[in-house]
Design a protein that fits this description.
Blueprint (H helix, E strand, L loop, with lengths): L1 H53 L4 H10 L2 H8 L7 E6 L2 H5 L4 H21 L8 E8 L2 E9 L6 H36 L1 H8 L15 H54 L11 H28 L11 E4 L1 H18 L3 E5 L4 E4 L1 H18 L5 E7 L3 E9 L30 H11 L3 E7 L2 E9 L1
Parallel strand pairs: 5-7
Antiparallel strand pairs: 1-3, 2-3, 4-6, 7-8, 8-10, 9-10
Helix pairs in contact: 1-2, 1-6, 8-9, 10-11, 11-12
């Protein structure tokens, strides 16, 4: 997820740098275009000023002579984009141009200029736009007119606007796409990615919920099939172990009686019981001793076989780490809340604070899986309570279920391997769950205890500090 966010930020940064670079390039091109247009308009305006200084003329003739007839020449010298599309001249007083007015007329013209110029600028000239340029025309040191040069475009302004709009649109689309991918792909897969690991550790109980998401529908279906396959394999292994135990038990009991008889016969031979004279034959006594020794070896093998059949090997190596107890609460909620809701079994989770726990989270989750599964299977469905608290010695996690408890006489045997209580006749099982829970708890330095009474069964897991 961090890699995804990092790449998204790099892409956004790339678009930002691209936008800044394109703006700088556009500004540079714009400044260059402005300089070129200033040069062209300055040259054309200088020609206008020469004609004004030369004598009599009118505005239309001046534009026709200097600009219209020579437009191709100006475009060839300075470029089409640098040349204006249109030139207009607005005169304030033609008398000043012809030089026939007196001082009073000149003053009147100057006053008229002050009044007329503003009006003309408002009505005829587009002074505020960057598509036009205004130059003054002078005669005798006085302003007698204005020359307006109009251009087709606004010096790359529209290009810059369009370019920035495209970059912004691309950046927004990228951000929206990133948010969509995060919500539809990254976040769901981040949750799903934990399931195979939990499944391999044996702490996953609830199947993945079915989804119509076209990205993970087949993945969810496949993981649920794998979960069913692993559970079926576990049931098969436990069934084979149970059958093996029964077979070995039958063989053991079948071997015990003949072995005992062989030892009795060898002892009788060694003492000369079957000798006609009642004397001990040294050779027979030596042979009887060998027979008895072999019978003892057989009894040892039988005892080892009995012990092996009564014990299941639990492969587990704890990995101690420090975590908050809320991680255990999160596991219980994710694995059992929906399952209990579907089964309509009331469930209450009681937690006091959120202290640090120094232990193996996976091991604790495996133990709680056994305790919760037993509470669901052997309870009467009227309620399950899980309470977590901290004491001076360690952490206590108690699972309580309502229902008919085991007799007091059976409680010492509930944690034995392959042992099942009197209330298990109608429930599938192998008698390994509580044995496994105690083995793991003791490897963590703790223990598991069971209490029963008043229609409740309470199993407590103790984890030391």
């Amino acid at each position: 997820m961090r890699a995804y966010v990092s790449r998204l930020l790099w892409m956004i940064l790339f678009f930002a740098v691209l936008a800044v670079g394109m703006n700088l390039l556009g500004r540079k091109l714009t400044e260059q275009s402005v300089r070129e247009r200033n040069v062209v308009t300055g040259r054309i305006n200088a020609q206008f000023q020469k004609e004004v200084d030369s004598g009599h003329w009118n505005a239309e003739a001046l534009v026709e002579k200097v600009f219209t007839q020579r437009r191709d020449e100006w475009c060839r010298l300075y470029g089409v984009k640098a040349c204006p599309e249109e030139v207009r001249i607005l005169l304030i007083s033609e008398d000043d141009v012809q030089g026939n007015a007196g001082e009073k007329r000149a003053d009147a013209a100057q006053e008229n200029h002050k009044e007329t110029t503003g009006e003309e600028l408002r009505q005829g000239l587009k002074v505020g736009e960057d598509t036009s340029k205004i130059f003054g025309l002078y005669a005798g040191g006085r302003l007698i007119g204005l020359a307006e040069y109009r251009f087709k475009d606004s010096t790359y302004g529209q290009v810059l606007l369009l370019m920035n709009g495209c970059i912004l649109a691309c950046a927004l689309l990228l951000i929206l796409y990133g948010v969509w991918v995060f919500g539809k792909v990254i976040l769901p897969f981040h949750k799903l990615a934990e399931y195979p690991e939990r499944l391999s550790k044996g702490v996953a109980t609830e199947k993945l919920p079915e989804t119509k998401n076209r990205f993970f529908g087949k993945y969810v279906w496949g993981m649920n099939m794998l979960s069913d396959k692993l559970e079926n394999d576990r049931q098969t292994i436990r069934r084979i172990s149970d059958e093996r135990q029964k077979m070995v038990t039958m063989l053991v009991h079948g071997i015990k009686t003949p072995t005992a008889n062989i030892k009795l016969l060898s002892e009788a031979i060694a003492t000369g019981l079957y000798d006609p004279d009642g004397k001990i034959n040294e050779k027979d006594a030596e042979l009887a001793g060998k027979i008895e020794k072999n019978a003892d070896d057989i009894e040892k093998l039988v005892s080892q076989a009995v012990e092996a059949t009564n014990t299941v090997s639990i492969e587990y190596e704890p990995k101690t780490e420090t975590f908050y107890r809320s991680m255990i609460e999160k596991f219980v909620r994710e694995e059992y809340l929906k399952r209990l809701e579907i089964s309509r079994i009331p469930f209450r989770l009681e937690c006091e604070g959120d202290p640090l726990v120094k232990s193996d989270l996976d091991g604790i989750c495996r133990i709680l899986r056994q305790l919760m599964d037993n509470a669901i299977k052997y309870g009467d469905g009227t309620g399950i309570r899980l309470k977590m608290e901290k004491t001076q010695e360690g952490h206590l996690i108690t699972v309580t279920n309502k229902g008919t408890p085991l007799p007091e006489s059976e409680l010492p045997f509930v944690f034995n391997s392959l042992w099942r209580g009197s209330n298990s006749s109608h429930v599938k099982g192998s008698g390994v769950g509580l044995y496994e829970a105690r083995v793991i708890a003791r490897k963590l330095g703790g223990d598991v205890r069971m209490r029963a009474g008043d229609g409740e069964t309470m199993v407590t897991l103790f984890i030391p500090l």
